[in-house]
Every structure is written in C-alpha cells, then in structure tokens.
Amino acid sequence: MAEETRILGFGRDILEPIGPRAPRGRIFWKVIRAKSEMLTQGERTWIKERAWVPEHVVPLMETISGGEAHLRGGFLLFHGPGWVIFVGYPLAPAQERGDLCQMILDVESSFRPYRMWFVGEEIPSILEKRCSERGSDRHFRLDLEGIGQSWEPAGRLGRSISKVRENLRVEVGGGFAPAHRELMADFFGRAHLPPRVKRLYEEVEDYLSSSTTGILLSAWHDKMGLASFSVLETWPERFSVYLLGCTSRERWASHSSDLLMAEMIRLSAKMGKEFMHLGLGVNQGIRRFKEKWGGYPWIPYEECGWRRRGSAMERLGWALWGKF
Questions:
Q1: Angstrom distance (rounded) from CA 9 to CA 323
Q2: Residues near 130 by Cβ (< 8 Å), separated by ≥ 6?
Q3: What is the DSSP letter of 124?
Q4: Is 3 within a domain?
Q5: Dihedral sign of CA atoms 33, 39, 44, 46 in order
Q6: What is the domain-level CATH number for residue 52?
Q7: Could you give the CA distance from residue 214 to residue 242 in angstroms, rounded to a whole number?
Q8: What is the DSSP letter of 220?
Q9: Rounded Cα gap, residues 215 and 242, in angstroms
Q10: DSSP sequence for 19-60
C-alpha cells in the first residue's frame, strides 16, 4: 500500500536548477554551504540519541530535501538555496533551549530565505497570520514493548500472514531492481499522490544507494515476481521509521504489505528500538491500516509555509539563481 505513509519532502521543489543561469546558482550555493555552520559529528550523534520524530532523522531529511542540517537553540533546521525548514519539535529540554518564536525570527534573519516552512506540534503565534500554506495531521506510533524475534501477530491478521507466507518470500536488504521501478511506475499511474509524497518515492532509490541505515524489504512471488516492497529507516537511537511502501494490485499480492510490516516490526524490535513511527494519518484508509497493526495517533503535526518578500538585492540574487 504505497499510500500507507507520508513524510516531508520540502525543498526539492525549489532546489532543482531552472533555466540557463542555474549552474551559476549551484556554484554560489556550494560557497554558501561551505561558509555555513554545518553539524559536527558530535552534534549528529547528539541528535541521533535525542531524536523522537521522523523530521529529526538527519540523513533522511538532508537527502530528501537537498539541504544541510543545522542546530539552533535546541531545535533542528534544514537550509537550502533560498529556503529553510524549521523543525519545531524540540531536541533539548525546555530549560536548555531558546524561545521558539525568537529562534524562528533569528533563523529568518540570519539565513534570509525566500521560502520558509515550520513543522511542529502547534503553529507559533508569530506565524498565524503569515502562513500561506497550512497542513494538519497526527504522527502515528507503534510501541514495540514485549515483541521478540519469534513474535507473530495474533488473530485474523496472523492467520492471513501465515497463509500469504506460503507463496511469498521476504528479502531484507538489497538494492532497487527493475521490478521495484516497474511496481512504482504502475502505482504512479493509478494513484493521486501529493507532489511531496511522490517526490519521496522518486528519491528513495538514490537514498537507499547512499544510506547505511535505510533498509529495503521486498516480498517476492516465485513465479509472479515482486508483490510488495517497503522501506524502513533505522538511524534514530530509540525508534525506526516506516518510510513508505508499494504493493501490486494483483490478487496474488493480497496481504503482502502485511507480511512486510510484520517483518519490519520484528526487525525494529531486534535492533532494540522502543517504537516505530508509522508516519502521518493522511486519510481514513491509511489510518485504518496503521491502527490494524496497533498504531495510534500520537503527537500533532502542524505545517506552515510562507514567503519572505526580501530586499531588492535579495530578489535580484534569487533571480540570478534561476530558482524562483
């Protein structure tokens, strides 16, 4: 079920070069990146240990957005050419972090982006009248306490998985094959995905090829080929992330996504994860799938996007980048 999850795909919509002046923009962006405050290895480890939402998964967010991660006052942000994503889910306790509203203003002042996004549990008061794009949802969580290597889902769900296991084998790891691309292309032809979600699918092959923590799981039928695939992200210390999934619409693939979910749950528990992030609710069908597995709506997800007018010189610079 490729609609089973949703994760942020900010940045790419304004990152790709447009027009003949784009190469100059890319060179300029490399200069900006070289001078900005990149994360140290120690900071990456600190974030990895304290991460509690998918937006804190630095390698994933950097790859999907195309930006670079920064720490400001106990908050994480991602910066690209002319844009910033501010992650309002704090990494530091209240007594150790800065004021959220002041942090947003400081980031806007120092990076001076054309476009800026905020994601967090609630929209800060200073942004209420500035948002031109809004979104609301909830993160879904699945607790892994008590799940061992021999765990099997109970009841009707367990019986369905036992039956489908007779015809399918699960491959953990490996890279994208032509069959994965064909399955994804077929899904694109019959599903209406939001641009950011589709972009995530389009980027996942490159992400897996460079990631040491993203895991591809595939369900194969000996005669019919690929039935389903899913991607699990395991970078955070405490949890894993069900990143995405894609399933054939053929009858023989029935419950293949459930088979992979069971495998991801066992794998996450084996790695010592406390819980799995199942992504956002998105719609009723996706919520039902997550709730079927014991997932429950956890923390709110609020999204806000806005544009800065900028000075005349800034607007000239943006035009020279060929981005806007």
A1: 17
A2: 304, 306
A3: -
A4: no
A5: negative
A6: 3.40.630
A7: 10
A8: E
A9: 10
A10: STTHHHHHHHHHHHHHHS-PPPHHHHHHHHHH--SGGG-HHH
Q: What is the mean pLDDT of the chain?
A: 85
pLDDT 10s digits, 21-43:
333 344 444 444 434 568 999 99
70-114: pLDDT as tens digits: 999 999 999 998 899 999 999 999 989 989 999 999 999 999 998
For residue 212, the 8-state DSSP code is S
Q: How many CB atoms lie within 10 A of CB 128?
A: 10
Is the domain of 171 the same as that of 245? yes
Return d(Cα 250, Cα 201) in angstroms, integer: 21
Q: Long-range CB contacts (< 8 A, 24+ apart) of 288-295?
A: 289/1, 289/4, 289/257, 290/4, 290/140, 290/142, 292/157, 293/142, 293/153, 293/157, 293/261, 293/265, 294/142, 294/143, 295/140, 295/141, 295/142
Looking at residue 192, what is its pLDDT? 76
The CA distance from 314 to 45, in Å, is 35
| Token code pair at residue 311 | 């000075």
Question: Residue 225: its pLDDT value, please?
Answer: 93
Q: Are residues 106 and 132 in the same domain?
A: yes
Q: What is the CATH number of the domain that holds 225?
A: 3.40.630.30
Residue 20's CB is within 10 A of a number of other CB atoms, namely 8
Structural domain of 205: 140-299
Kindly report the pTM of this predicted structure.
0.84
Question: Are residues 289 and 211 located together in one domain of the fold?
Answer: yes
Which amino acid belongs to residue 270? K
Q: Could you tell me which residues come within 8 angstroms of residue 44 by beta carbon, excluding any fewer than 6 positions away?
A: 58, 69
C-alpha 174/C-alpha 186 separation (Å) is 21
Asked if residue 19 is part of any domain, the answer here is yes
Q: Which range (46-50, 81-85, 227-231, 282-286) has the least confidence?
A: 282-286
